[in-house]
Design goal:
CATH superfamily of the largest domain: Type I PLP-dependent aspartate aminotransferase-like (Major domain)
CATH class of the largest domain: Alpha Beta
Number of strands: 11
Structural class: alpha/beta
Strand order of the largest sheet: 1-7-6-5-4-2-3
Radius of gyration: 22 Å
Largest sheet: 7 strands, mixed
Bound molecules: pyridoxal-5'-phosphate
Length: about 350
């Protein structure tokens, strides 16, 4: 069991900060005369019943998630997308102009984005070329040199390369690093692997995020989940805005959690679509390399990614051009679509090849 004192990691001024006390947290129950939050008791101009503030701690969702993931409700933070979870975590633990985060590009850019906005140092250790695994010696040397390093961000499966990061490496970092090790599992459902959430009891410094935006197909509801030890979640709750997840998103999440088999069905359709795209891409001469994927997207390399990207746009097919990302010269990333969308993409690609 890796023991870390989270109170020593959090930004000192947050340690004793009181959470904003929203009116709705002071009374439990739905019954009563609610004259505490300056709402309009009559109703809503839009029609429907939208006049009351939502539960600031989203307890009904947490109850369900806690059962599914076998964690305590206090180990769960919900955000306006996992983007917000990343933002609140960085703001709780990193002191501007003093602390640093470590990222391993090419990777999801949000970690850098929120750190940059907070004036927090960003240390970049590139993934290994072609395998896109962690460069452990380089990460270890940064850990040794930088006492101000607070969070190491890992994305597994990694966006945009699609591969899982070796579990042994993540475990070694959890053992060796005394700051937080963040594992982004936005695409985990497509990998068939078990979640790091189940290792929370072993590592005080483990933070995991997941999202309703991908396999659940609920990107516009903006709902992300962060799992960590209670003290981490406590400090995040302390600084978050009170009503960060709106009522409709909360209701949608509750419905979705009663229908997890539907998500599993989507996952199996999307992984079948991924297999189809993999097979087809492998036989298109223009495609120099197709990288293996544990996610719902595929990274592939061509001679001239910019030209192909422009051609696809002309045909109203929008993929992600990763040509300018480190290690990804010539690479495009394509999301798995519906069967018809995948076929259309392949047929336009074949036209270009001819
Ligand atoms: C790796 C990764 N993490 C997190 C997110 C953010 O997801 P959301 O804010 O929709 O939960 C994304 C979005 O594309 C992503 O690719």
């Amino acid at each position: 069991m890796k023991k870390i004192n989270i109170d020593e990691l959090v930004r000192p001024h947050i340690l004793h900060m009181k959470p904003y006390s929203s009116a709705r947290l002071e009374y439990e129950g739905n019954d009563g005369v609610f004259l505490d939050a300056n709402e309009n008791p009559y109703g809503s101009v839009s029609g429907g019943q939208h006049n009351r503030y939502p539960d600031p701690l989203q307890m009904q969702i947490k109850e369900k998630l806690a059962k599914v993931e076998q964690v305590r409700e206090e180990q769960i933070f919900l955000g306006n997308g996992s983007d917000e979870c990343i933002d609140v975590l960085v703001r709780a633990f990193c002191e501007p102009q003093k602390d640093a985060i470590l990222v391993c590009p090419p990777v999801f850019s949000m970690y850098e984005h929120v750190a940059e906005a907070q004036h927090i140092d960003i240390v970049r250790v590139l993934l290994q070329p072609e395998t896109f695994q962690l460069d452990m010696p380089a990460i270890r040397s940064k850990i040794a040199q930088m006492p101000n390093l607070k969070i190491i961000f890992i994305c597994s499966p990694n966006n945009p390369t699609g591969n899982l990061i070796h579990a042994d490496d993540i475990e070694a970092l959890l053992q060796e690093f005394s700051g937080l090790v963040f594992v982004d599992e936005a695409y985990l459902d497509f990998s068939g692997q078990t979640s790091w959430v189940h290792r929370l009891q072993e590592f005080d410094n483990l933070v995991v995020i997941q999202t309703f935006s991908k396999s659940y197909g609920m990107a516009d509801a903006r709902l992300g989940i962060l799992y960590a030890q209670e003290r981490v979640v406590h400090f995040m709750n302390t600084i978050k805005l009170p009503y960060n997840v709106n009522q409709y998103s909360q209701e949608l999440a509750l419905k979705a959690l009663d229908k997890i088999s539907v998500k599993d069905q989507y996952v199996s359709e999307l992984t079948a679509g991924r297999d189809y795209l993999m097979n087809e891409l492998a036989f298109i001469p223009l495609v120099q390399k197709v990288y293996p994927s544990d996610a719902n997207y595929i990274l592939f390399r061509v001679q001239d990614a910019n030209a192909l990207y422009a051609y696809l746009i002309q045909h109203k097919i929008i993929v992600r051009n990763r040509d300018s990302a480190p290690l990804l010269k010539g690479c495009l990333r394509v999301s798995v679509g519906t069967e018809a969308e995948n076929q259309r993409f392949i047929s336009v690609l074949k036209q270009y090849s001819n």
